[in-house]
Write a structure and sequence with these properties.
Lipocalin, 3 helices, 9-stranded mixed beta barrel, single chain, two-stranded antiparallel sheet, alpha+beta, about 10% helix
Length: about 290
């Protein structure tokens, strides 16, 4: 089988790097070689999309353009499980955004202090000296950023737990069913997640996320008080997985915000090995990501 994605030996696309544009082209080229066609963002996604932060027109605040995402499974692929509460299998994001806000090209509602930090990071990226982040050091990407990865995921369901196995950097999320967060919660890169079913929707609550990571690839800040709620729901006869996400952070955000993402059912795909520590293309030097 041909590779399902690119740059598995380093953070690559998910890093806020000076070579972001080139990586976009590389991923698009890889997509053309895969077993099924890719699809561009929808008209609704691209209509009136800002090209700079806050639609300022300032070229130093230019936003990285989105990537095309996964298309549907090839004809003749294994059909999805008809059980709406069975999410098992391989899924792939339909479209990838570098900036994760309430709408494509719209920044999160950051407080002024943290908006200034985002501007600094975008200017550094556009100047070819992007600030280092967790992914460029081969640490986990953080949340919600990880769920925006343009790499496939595999969902596994076992008694009392739902697990997401991410191709990117072999990262793993575990959702503990019908439990509470521990009282003495430890801060971790992907946080602690508990979940429950509301009808056919899996509701996931995540807290305790390390503030060293970013909300998104453009560099939006969050604190360790960040709280994320995701609602996973199969649509289109099980051929798509809709994930509605709400992000709140009393430290960095003016108010909570929500957005939706869609994953394609891809039983034809087998997630590949991704060793970030081997040939890390974005290893930082003196706090700056150095793309090679």
């Amino acid at each position: 089988m041909k590779p399902t994605s690119i740059m598995r030996n380093g953070p690559a696309i998910l890093a806020v790097t000076a070579s972001a544009a080139a990586l976009c082209l590389a991923f698009s080229a890889s997509a053309q070689d895969s077993q099924s066609p890719r699809q561009a963002p929808t008209a609704a996604q691209t209509a009136n999309r800002p090209t700079t932060l806050d639609n300022s027109g300032d070229p130093t605040l230019a936003l990285t353009r989105p990537l095309r995402g996964s298309g549907p499974a090839p004809a003749g692929s294994k059909p999805p499980n008809p059980d709406p509460k069975n999410l098992e299998g391989v899924w792939w994001l339909k479209g990838y955004e570098y900036l994760i806000g309430p709408a494509p090209g719209i920044e999160p509602p950051l407080k002024p202090k943290y908006m200034d930090i985002l501007k600094r990071r975008i200017r550094a990226k556009n100047a070819g000296k992007p600030e280092t982040d967790t992914s460029t050091q081969c640490f986990p990407h953080g949340m919600p950023r990880l769920m925006e990865s343009p790499y496939p995921i595999e969902i596994v369901q076992t008694p009392g737990r739902v697990t997401i196995l991410h191709e990117v950097a072999h990262e793993v999320r575990r959702f503990y069913l019908n439990q509470k967060h521990p009282e003495n919660l430890k801060i971790t890169y992907l946080g602690h997640s508990v979940a429950h079913w509301e009808g056919d929707t899996l509701v996931v609550d995540t807290v305790g996320i390390n503030a060293a990571s970013f909300i998104d690839d453009e560099g939006s800040s969050h604190s360790d008080k960040e709280h994320i709620v995701e609602r996973f729901h199969k649509i289109d006869g099980g051929r798509q997985l809709q994930v509605d996400t709400t992000v709140e952070d009393p430290v960095t955000l003016e108010h909570p915000y929500s957005y939706s993402r869609y994953f394609q059912w891809r039983p034809d795909v087998r997630p590949a090995e991704y060793i970030c520590e081997e040939n890390n293309r974005n290893a930082p030097v003196n706090g700056v990501t150095v793309a090679q």
